[in-house]
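Need residues for this backbone.
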C-alpha cells in the first residue's frame, strides 16, 4: 500500500552529497531505509542525506526517482552542484 505524501519530495544534489526532503518517520520512510540503507537522517538539516561517488549521480538520481514514482510520490529537483 502506498502512503500519501501531500507535497513533492525535494531531491537536492550537492555534488557528492544528496539531500532528500522526506519526513523522519512513517511507512514510506521504512521502505526508503530498506531501499537506501546508506541514507541517514540529518537532524540539523532536517532531511535525509546520502553520499555518492562522482560519476554515479545520474544512476543515483534515477534510483531515487524510480523509488518515489513506484510509491506514488511526486518529486522536485534542486541542483546545487
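Answer:
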Amino acid at each position: 500500500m502506498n502512503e500519501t505524501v501531500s507535497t513533492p519530495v525535494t531531491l537536492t544534489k550537492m555534488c557528492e552529497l544528496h539531500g532528500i526532503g522526506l519526513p523522519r518517520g512513517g511507512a514510506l520512510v521504512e521502505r526508503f531505509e530498506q531501499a537506501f540503507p546508506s541514507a541517514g537522517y540529518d537532524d540539523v538539516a532536517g532531511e535525509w542525506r546520502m553520499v555518492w561517488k562522482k560519476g554515479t549521480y545520474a544512476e543515483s538520481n534515477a534510483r531515487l526517482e524510480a523509488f518515489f514514482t513506484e510509491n506514488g510520490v511526486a518529486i522536485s529537483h534542486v541542483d546545487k552542484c
